[in-house]
Write a structure and sequence with these properties.
The chain is mostly helical. It has 3 helices and no strands.
């Protein structure tokens, strides 16, 4: 009869604690800030303030990128990626329709 090794649960398949999915700490502030900057830049683009909207959108992309690098949870990453995408699209629209300061 072949010998079998005692089985122990692998640490890779252990369930994660429920608090691991919750947003917490100062990294969530960065994720929310990227979303807020994206929303502000969209509003500025809608009122045709393209130069200021482009600056705010660029800040949203930078803050969201940093938030993506330091995020701990899936929720933080979801918020920061959403903010980065909205801010990047708004930045492109503002630069395409700008008053000529950026060209």
């Amino acid at each position: 009869m072949p010998r079998t090794l005692p089985t122990r649960p692998s640490p890779r398949i252990l369930p994660r604690p429920p608090e691991a999915m919750h947003l917490r700490g100062d990294h969530r502030v960065l994720a929310v800030a990227s979303l807020a900057l994206a929303v502000v830049s969209v509003v500025l683009a809608l009122v045709e303030s393209y130069d200021v909207g482009a600056v705010v959108a660029l800040l949203g992309v930078l803050v969201g990128g940093w938030s993506q690098m330091v995020s701990d949870t899936r929720g933080e990453r979801f918020e920061s990626v959403t903010g980065v995408i909205v801010a990047a699209v708004t930045l492109a629209v503002c630069l395409a329709n700008g008053s000529g300061v950026w060209t």
